[in-house]
Specification:
single chain, alpha+beta, BirA Bifunctional Protein, domain 2, YbaK protein, Rossmann fold, 3 domains, nine-stranded mixed β-sheet, 31 strands, 27% helix
Length: 567
């Protein structure tokens, strides 16, 4: 491809409506343009990147035994009613009606559609296992679409569904996908980790996320420095080290704390360690109020709470609701004498001589002892795990980092097949429900995540496997016949060798061409200038290195092919 024939509207200035680096650089590099909030057009360079990602994904899915299908974007309400998700999915679902006033949605996911398909077409255990996948646009009405392709309302996703006769079969399919996903992200050239994860709205017994490491990532993960344990903070298990029960503690004492509402304020006023504070939060769980007890230096993990109570909805009660439930405002609540359902984090049972709200404005209680002064309904792991905590597997130290979720695999079991009465006849002629798995890769998010992880002050640094072009040829002066003749010759030789090459044939200054090449992130740049030509050499530079090297013209094609193989 010649640059003069390519639509690459690069920008020198940083767009004002962009937030994260991938959004800024993809816009500046002329790869995406915003149509509406969370909706983007992919220009030619971006489309080439997406095609390469798709190709790698397809190859690994096919290698694992997957078969590609095309499922409809528009889905009828009737399918979603069978699983109860038409009501449960919430406002993120794009809903519409046809001219007959029948309800449809734009597919945010395809569990119902694929289950209905397989139920209609597969009738015997002999036809299983089955792995079906698609690569398609998905639609979710995000409350606040942001960060460019990181959180959009229309996005590209690969989703694969497995159908097995039993849990043992599901385990085999799940491991196939686990290793296939690992191969995908290794081939993409990304630094990633596989972590245990919460299954969320999709459901199922267990799941793993594939996280591209990046400081800008929305996901926080913890991992052990001694073993292979890794999990996102929603799933990470907190270790409670049993302590000797405090037998002696002074009697309760109410101490004035005028105007002190937050843990930080109380700690400073009383001069105590925040680990001695019992923080009481009022949460509304499916319309039922709960008092949740967390140590003062810890944060509540709402996902753990939701999973423990098998709840549909959880939120922290606002000030007016807290007063209605407890009689006092936020910051004055405590567990002693509180008449409401109560759950305490595991750490609370090990506390003694603690402090908490007195259920009286402007006061806190000192010398609080769990078991003596209050008894929660249960002690449960309810807190966020933090760096420095113990590993739940080997007791090593946990480290923390941020990343971007780009893939997620789930063991669904019979959640959807049972709800839709979808199944097969086993070898005894008895109907059984399909045992299912679900496996997703955010293709457009992968592109953004790659930029978040691999860039510098000059622009994008694409991994070779997904770069829009592997090589760019830049003649310093296109009016120099000798430079142009050799550039044309090399361009043809590289194409014939199977190299994906861009030839910058614009009548622009060399500096402009260099800046554009760096901005769009092409891994290898070959510069053809008068000095190197006189030596029968050309200059080759790796995008991420400051220095270039001179290579003999006779060796340049082999040198390029060798570098591509190594990258």
């Amino acid at each position: 491809m010649r640059t003069t024939q390519l639509l690459v509207p690069t920008l020198r200035e940083e767009p004002s409506d962009t937030e994260v680096i991938s959004h800024k650089l993809l816009v500046r590099a002329g790869m995406i343009r915003k149509v509406a909030g969370g909706v983007y057009t992919y220009l030619p360079l971006a489309f080439r990147v997406l095609q390469k990602i798709n190709q790698i994904v397809r190859e690994e899915m096919n290698r694992a035994g997957g078969q590609e299908v095309g499922l409809p974007i528009m889905q009828p309400r009737e399918l979603w009613d069978q699983t109860g998700r038409w009501q449960l999915y919430g406002d993120e679902m794009f809903r519409l009606k046809d001219r007959h006033q029948r309800d449809f949605c734009l597919g945010p996911t395809h569990e119902e559609v694929i289950t209905a398909l397989v139920n209609a077409e597969v009738h015997s255990y002999r036809d299983l296992p089955l792995l079906l996948y698609q690569i398609q646009d998905k639609f979710r009405d995000e409350i606040r679409p942001r960060f460019g392709l990181m959180r959009g309302r229309e996005f590209i996703m690969k989703d694969l569904y497995s159908f097995d006769v039993d849990e043992d079969g599901l385990e085999i399919s799940y491991r196939k996908m686990y290793f296939a996903y690992t191969a995908v992200f290794e081939r993409l050239g990304l630094d990633f980790r596989v972590v245990e994860a919460d299954s969320g709205a999709i459901g199922g017994s267990s799941s793993h996320e594939f996280i591209v490491l990046a400081r800008s990532g929305e996901s926080v993960i913890v991992y052990c420095d001694q073993c292979d344990y890794a999990a996102n903070v929603e799933k990470a298990e907190a270790v409670f080290e049993p302590v000797e029960k405090v037998e002696e503690c002074p009697p309760l004492n109410a101490v004035p704390t005028p105007g002190k509402k937050s843990v930080a304020d109380v700690v400073e006023f009383l001069g105590v360690d925040p680990a001695r504070i019992i923080k009481t939060l009022i949460c509304i769980v499916d319309d039922v109020p709960y008092a949740i007890l967390i140590r003062g230096d810890r944060e509540l993990n709402e996902v753990k709470l939701k999973n423990y109570l098998q709840a549909s909805e959880i939120f922290l009660a606002p000030e007016d609701m807290v007063k209605e439930i407890t009689g006092v405002g936020i910051g004055s609540i405590g567990p002693v004498g509180l008449k409401v359902k109560m759950l305490a984090d595991l750490e609370i049972q090990g506390m003694g001589d603690a402090f908490c709200g007195a259920n009286c404005e402007e006061y806190h209680l000192a010398h609080v002892l769990p078991g003596r002064d209050f008894n929660p309904d249960a002690y449960v792991d309810l807190r966020n795990v933090e760096a420095g905590d113990s590993c739940p597997r080997c007791r090593g130290e946990l480290l923390a980092t941020r990343g971007i979720e780009v893939g997620h695999i789930f063991k669904l079991g019979t959640r959807y097949s049972q709800a839709m009465d979808a199944g097969f006849l086993d070898e005894d002629g008895v109907k059984r429900h399909f045992v299912m798995g679900c496996y997703g890769i955010g293709v457009s998010r992968v592109m953004a995540a790659a930029v978040e992880q691999k860039h510098d002050e000059n622009g994008i640094i694409w991994p070779m496997a997904i770069a829009p072009f592997q090589v760019i040829i830049v003649p310093v002066n296109v009016r120099d016949e000798q430079q142009v003749d050799y550039a044309e010759k090399l361009y043809q030789e590289l194409k014939e060798a199977g190299v994906d090459v861009l030839y910058d044939d614009r009548e622009e200054r060399a500096g402009v061409k260099f800046k554009d090449a760096d901005l769009i992130g092409i891994p290898l740049r070959i510069t053809i200038g008068p000095k190197s030509l006189k030596q029968n050499k050309v200059e080759i530079k790796k995008r991420w290195e400051a220095e270039s090297e001179l290579v003999d013209q006779k060796r340049i094609v082999d040198a390029v092919l060798s570098l591509i193989d190594k990258m």
